[in-house]
Amino acid sequence: MSQVTSKLKTGKTVQDYIDEIPVWPDGTQLTKLPLTGMQWRIWSLAVAGKFFEGLVVFMTGVALPLLDKTFHLGAYQNSIVTAATLFGILIGATLLGGMADIFGRKTMFIAEMILFVVFLVAMTLSQSFAMLAVCLFGIGLALGCDYPTAHMVISEAVPSRGRGGLVLGAFAFQAIGAMCGAGLGILILSVYPQLDAWRWMFAAAIIPAIIVVTGRFFVCDSAHWLVSRGRLKEAEAETHKLLKREPQYPKVVALQDPHVSEHSGVREEPKRHVGVLFNKENRRATYLASIPWFLQDLSTYGIGIFTPVILAATLGTVAATSDTSGIVNKVLMSAKGTLMLDVLLVVGILAAVLLVERAGRIQLQIVGFIGCAAGLALAALSLIGGGHDMPLLFLGFMLFNFMTNMGPNAQTYLLAGEVFPTAIRGYGAGFAASFAKIGAVATAFLFPILLKSIGTQALLIGLIVASLLGAVATWAFRIETRGVLKDKPTSDVPLT
C-alpha cells in the first residue's frame, strides 16, 4: 500500500458541502436545496449523452433494412451489424469507463463524446460493410464509456436527497431519444424516401453532438474524484465552482480527505484496478451491480425478438417486397409501431423517478423483476395450445415494458454508480455494464437459434426464470444507497 504524507482530517467532505442548505449572514435560510447553475449544466450535458444513445441505437434498428439493401448484407453480416454496437458497449464500459478513475470524470466525459462524433461522421460516409461494422463498434465504445461516466458526473455533483430522481431523469432520455429517433426516421423517410436515407438519419445528430462536446469543456471536474487522488486544493476550487451562487455560499471550502488515517495522519492511497472489485470490502457491491443487470438484459433484449409479432398484430402486415418503396414502407411501419411501444417505457421511467427516493432502489428493483415475470407469464399464457391470443400477448409485453423501466432497467443502472467507493466507481460501474452486455450480445446471437430449437413458449418461460432469479439476487446482495454516496469501501454487511 503506497503512503504519502498528508494533513490530518479537517473540514468537511465534498458531499457535506453539496448537501448543505445555505444560510446567509442576514439570517436568510432556504427551506430546500435548489441546484446551482453549474449543477444544472452538468445534468443537462449528461442528459444529452443518454438522449444520443437512445437516438442512434434506435435509428440503427430502423435503418437496418436500408443498410441491408445498400450493402447487400447476408445473414452473417446482418448478425454482425445487430451485435456490433452492443459488443462495443461491452468493451467500452470496462476499458473506457475505468479510465474515469485514472484520468478524471471530466476528461472522459469530453473524450467519449468526441469519440462518438468521430465514428458518427465516419458512419454517414461509409462505403463498405467493413467500415459500417467498425463505425457501429466505435459508436458502441463511446456509449459504453457513457454508461458509468454520465452517472458519475451527475451523482458526484448533486445533493444526496433527490440524487436518484436526477440520475433516473437523465436515464429517461434514453427512451425519449428512441422516440425522437422514430420520429426523425419517419420524417426523413417521408421527405426523402430513398435507400440512402439512413445517412441523413445519422447525419442529423452530428451538429447537436458537436455542441454537446463544446459544452462539456465548460463544466467543473468531480471534486469527489480529485479528493480520491489526494488533490485537495483542486477539489476545493472545483467545489467552489460547482456551488457558485448569488450571494455566494459557501464562501470558503475546506475539505477533509477520507483516506487519511485519523491516528497517523498518513494518507493511504486507494488501490485502483478491476481486481479490487472482488476483495472482501467490495465484492458484495460487485455482485449486486452485475448479476441482476445481466439477468435484466437477458429479458430486455429477449423481448426485442418478439416485437415484430406485436407490430404485425397491431399495425397489420406489409407484403414482402424488395423494391425501394416497399422497403421504405416497411421501415415506416416498424418505426411507427416502436414509437407506440416506447411510450410505456417512458411512463415506466417517470414512475421510477417519482418513487425511487420514497420506496428505495432495492424495493423497486425486486418489485420490478417480479412484475416483469408476471408480464412474461401473460405472454406465455397467450400461446397455450399453439394459438395466439394477441390481446393477452400485447398486454403481457406492455406490462413488461412498464415494470422493467420502473424497476430493474432503471435501478440496475442507478445502483451500479452508487454502491462503489469513489476511487473505483468507474471500474465498478463499467464492469457491471459490460457484464450485463454479455447477456445482451449472447441474446442477439442465440435467441434466433433457440426460437427454432425449443420454441417461443419455452423461451418465454426461460425469461420468467431469469426475472425471478434477478429478484432473488437483488435481495441476496442488497445494499440500499438511498441518500448515500460512498467515499470508502462497503463492508460485507448488507445495508438495508
Automatic annotation (TrEMBL):
**Entry GO CC:** membrane
Picking any one GO molecular function of the record gives: transmembrane transporter activity
**Hey, which family's this protein in?**
Belongs to the major facilitator superfamily. Sugar transporter (TC 2.A.1.1) family.
Q: Which keywords are on file for this protein?
A: Membrane, Transmembrane, Transmembrane helix, Transport
Protein name in the entry? MFS transporter
> Where is this gene product found?
Membrane
Q: Identify its membrane topology class.
A: Multi-pass membrane protein
Membrane-spanning residues: 42-67, 79-100, 107-125, 131-154, 166-192, 198-219, 339-356, 362-384, 427-451, 458-477
According to the entry, every stretch annotated as the Major facilitator superfamily (MFS) profile domain falls at 42-482
Against InterPro entries, the record matches this protein to: MFS_dom, MFS_sugar_transport-like, MFS_trans_sf, Sugar_transporter_CS
The organism encoding this protein is Acidisoma silvae
- Which PROSITE patterns does this UniProt record tie to the protein? MFS, SUGAR_TRANSPORT_1
